[in-house]
What does this fold into?
Amino acid sequence: MPVYKRILLKLSGESLMGAQKYGLDTAVLNSYATQIKAVVDSGVQVGIVIGGGNIFRGLSGVKKGFDRVKGDQMGMLATVINSLALQTALEGEGAKAKVLTSIRMEPIGELYSKAKALELMAGGCVVIIAGGTGNPYFTTDTASALRGVEIEAEVLLKGTRVDGVYTADPEKDPTATKFSTITFDEVYDRKLKVMDLTAFTMCKENDLPIVVFDMDTPGNLCKIVDGEPIGTVVKNA
Ligand SMILES: Nc1ncnc2c1ncn2[C@@H]1O[C@H](COP(=O)(O)OP(=O)(O)OP(=O)(O)O)[C@@H](O)[C@H]1O
Ligand SMILES: O=c1ccn([C@@H]2O[C@H](COP(=O)(O)O)[C@@H](O)[C@H]2O)c(=O)[nH]1
It folds into this structure.
């Protein structure tokens, strides 16, 4: 029995590469689509924001001599590619899915509005919000916090490559230990970097809890939605 009526799911762009070094792995897309469909079938309304790190990030463009704004625009377009790929995978699973874009680009997707997103979700359609916030100098973590607050989601589920928030980056420090729950203030105090601070602040100020979890373990998403203690919950004290 789901404990949430509406969720905002943030999917990692980098995870969509699977074992590859770049681009999209259809096995990962299909696995995510199966899990998302199961959640929708249980009656939960689902909004999704996807990263673009498997294709392009503005900051890595800057290192190669790109203008930051153009680089970020390329990164936002990368999230549109990922969104269309996930929409295709969801439709292949028999789910209803629609891409709304933060930047006008019909006919690829209709322009995002809160009203449109709510109307689609109420009809059982997965709404994939593409193009980040539509503005440079932000990330899709911040876009997911913003859209999560806007669509009045009860939780932001950050599906990523690690299974929660640790005392240090677990990909660099094997002695790091995992939190089951942590407050936004403690994340600031310990300077933990699993999500960017703009995203954390948006969630803290609007009282939107975050669950950081490993999306690559099939079944995790359904378990969280059913209230099982998977990953790390970040919330106000
Ligand atoms: N304290 C920490 N606890 C957990 N993970 C951490 C921590 N500090 C840094 N990380 C790193 O944060 C990463 C996840 O955040 P990040 O936003 O970079 O990835 P993502 O959501 O997978 O990326 P994207 O969507 O941009 O492709 C993990 O891969 C992990 O190595
Ligand atoms: O609101 C936004 C969101 C994203 N960008 C750019 O896109 C890439 C990819 O997003 P990730 O969150 O890193 O996966 C990001 O690096 C930015 O360059 C943006 O400009 N504005």
Summary: The pocket of LLZGTKA7 (ligand 2) is lined by residues 13, 51-53, 57-59, 71-72, 75-76, 78-79, 132-133, 135-136, 138-141, 143 (CB under 6 Å). Residues 68-92 form the longest helix (25 residues). The longest strand covers residues 6-11. Residues 6-186+203-231 form a domain with the Carbamate kinase fold (CATH 3.40.1160.10).
